[in-house]
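Field: sequence (string)
Field: structure_tokens (string)

Example rows 1 and 2, in order.
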Amino acid sequence: MSYFKVFGLEEEPFSTSPDPAFFYESAEHREALLRLEIAVKLKRGASLLVGDVGTGKTTLARKLFHVFQDRTKYEFSMILDPGFHSELEFLASVSDVFDTKPEAPTIYGYRKAIETYLFQKGVSENKTVILLIDEAQKLNVEAIEVLRTFLNYETNKCKLLQLVLFAQTELLPQVRQIHNFWDRLSLKYILNSLSIKETKEVVGYRLKQAGYRRQVPLFSEDALDMVFHHTEGCPRRIMMLCHNALETLIIKNRLQVDSETMRELITEEARIVHART
């Protein structure tokens, strides 16, 4: 039997996989998603969302993908790991996700094929072409320059490519130095960690989504306070700590994650970190 079934759950509540069904809309996540939707629907061009590791960027990316699933209106493509070493590699990857075939596998060939694709979809078929790049902090200067040239493809009214970049905050100083790209970003949004109220809400929301219906709460208020203070509201760290807490209940035959259980977990984590150091 899977461990979560012991608690009357239908599925894993604290998975770190970016499942849109478990997407908790904090005030910032809701605002970020809405601003991205508006930017894309108005065909504003390029949008940048940055946040620290584990703040929910990838889950937000999957949520955005589900918003624009109508293939009669949108062509949504994603690049999940843009750590390419050359302009040619990057162009080949973009061409691949767009499913375009260049006449020749050269820089010029790929550029021409992508340009043709954007005008075909955006003008002839009147579709919105969206390219979302996750982990965009891995983009090198050559790739950013390629993206800048893509943003030059436009009609009198709109950009033909809607570019959405999700990145860690380390990308900001790099992009700020590339003024002709920075100025083309119509939306710049920084995603912060959750508040203590939102931390408690996301734990309850995840349990409810996973099917928890019992009257006795699985986490005491004191335990939830400790979750927030230990994780500093980072969603990924919250998920990992709460997952470990439920495993501890099973191992030690307990009914609720209380402050004692949480203190044991935090102490053990600190011991492991100290040992590695």
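Row 2 begins here:
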Amino acid sequence: MKFDLDSLQVLDAIVEAGTFAEAARRLHRTQSAVSYAVGKLEKSLSLQLFDRSGHRAELTDSGRAILDEGRALLARAQQLESMAHQLSENWEAKLEVIIDGILPIDPILGVLKNFADEAIPTRIQVKMEFLGGVQYRFNRDDADIMVVKDFEPNFGLRATALSPVEVVLVCSRDHPLAELDADSPADRQILHEHVELTVQDSSPSGRADTRMFGGPRVFYLSDFHAKKAALLAGLGFGWMPLYLVREELACRRLVEFPYLEISRYQFTPMAVHQTSRPLGRAGRRFIESLQAAVS
């Protein structure tokens, strides 16, 4: 490299101080050492950075351009030094999190915003999967955390419970199922007469949601927002997390229809990580912050 950061710091100090002498005082160096550093930089770049013909040395156009770029490099170097210091204090270099698409995203985004506001050095990757695809991606990518509705537990996984999520069985107000009342609730045979809407499992095995009703006509959607649009269009019926349809239920664009067994249930999401690879500060902070956000 034709220059070093120290020379750029000297150049910046001279411009900020106004004179070589004042820069030397601020840098706790001799004036000759400051002049030498500038001369060394000019020689290495084959550029004249200061016009010394007048009473006072002034930056040349080349000097101004080098100063602008140099300041950007100095700022980046300072960021790099700060990041190295933070990483040495047990912040992970990277944190990969797999999120179940049925879960509310707002609390997760809030946690990520706090990470950004605090300039936490960890690079965070968040990926969304559905049903069995969450644990499949967690295992395949050797991810750090999965936040999941259901998973297959084993002794190598540690789970932290989050706040429950309520799920409701709904259809459009114009759908035939919306005409049912508590005296004549739907049973499985009635539901089999209509199209059931569900979200596609994103794992290669594509296992079915255990809450499906097993009818002959099922439409698979890519995510819960697409499923909600299909419900509003009267395409069929299906389970939806209550937080996504609360407003539509309130204004009766969607209705919760009675089912012989249950038309609502709750599940407790889990934040899961591997016991063989303990979480660092970012992973622990992520789970703790998420617990606080959803509660």
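free_text_note (row 2): The longest helix spans residues 61-88.
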